[in-house]
Amino acid sequence: MTSQFSAYVITEPCVGVKNGICLEVCPVDCIDSTDDDDQYFVDPEVCIACEQCALVCPMDAVYLDIEVPSYFKSYINRNADFYRANKGEPMPVPIDRALTMIQAGHARAMELDIAVSVSVVDEGGRLIAFGRMDRSRPMSVDISINKAYTAASFQVPTTDLGAVSGQSWFQSLIVSSQGKIIAVAGGLPVLGEPMVVGAVGVSGGTDEQDQECARAAVAAY
Ligand code: SF4
Ligand code: SF4
Questions:
Q1: What are the TM regions of this chain, as residue ranges (predicted)?
Q2: Among 9, 78, 123, 168, which is most exposed with the fewest C-beta within 10 angstroms?
Q3: How far from each other are the two terminal CA atoms of the chain, in whole angstroms?
């Protein structure tokens, strides 16, 4: 699977230093290592290319993948290989479950007397299933997809992003993602065993109503 973002890569200057400073700033917790490894690695499937790790690294060890100097190119594979070896393959939300989740979101919306769009995406933010209720507003279509995309990319509820949404790196991400990153209520990750396997996004009601419908959808997983 390929992330929809470019990813940052940790290279040779980290070897033997491994002081973990970058771990403190990564908003999606995608930097890891083991006791047996002498450097940290970035998970290219999860990295959202926010640049925060590169900005704090005292060794200048971190590069965007398309900007890694030729003498450090092998580290692109080394970072990816670390996760291939240490992380299981995610199993995306199956289509029958996704459709059930959409029905659950719609059912909750009917109880609330609103009309919503519900999107279910895989762990990389790619659409699995979508359902738009009659009378839901046209703009709810893209917004629900974007909420799901954001929840999958950050692996947290979109409501959790309020604290960082005003920061410059987040604003840059909004621009570079062409508006697909969105920090409003209604996006929730879907937790499998042991990792995020997708996300749901709901749009059409108030923030609270969208959030409630998203919760109903996730509960049906
Ligand atoms: S670029 Fe951002 S998301 Fe990627 S590893 Fe660095 S801090 Fe984490
Ligand atoms: S801040 Fe730099 S040197 Fe420190 S662990 Fe991260 S990549 Fe390695």
A1: none
A2: 168
A3: 22
Cβ < 6 Å from ligand 2: which residues?
10, 14, 17-22, 40, 57, 59, 61-62
Pairing assessment for the beta strands 31-32 and 41-42 based on DSSP bridges: antiparallel
The torsion region of residue 8 among left (phi > 0), alpha (psi -120 to 50) and beta comes to beta
ipTM over 0.85? The verdict is: yes
Mean pLDDT by 10 residues, the chain (221 residues): 71 97 92 96 90 96 96 96 84 93 98 98 93 97 97 93 89 87 95 84 98 98 93
Ligand 2 atom closest to Cα of 23?
A: 6
Summarised one tens digit per residue, pLDDT across range 148-160 is 999 998 989 999 9
Say if residues 170 and 48 touch (Cβ distance below 8 Å).
Answer: no
Residue/partner pairs of 34-41 with CB below 8 Å, 24 or more apart: 34/86, 37/82, 39/10, 39/12, 39/14, 39/15, 40/10, 40/14, 41/10, 41/78, 41/79, 41/82, 41/83
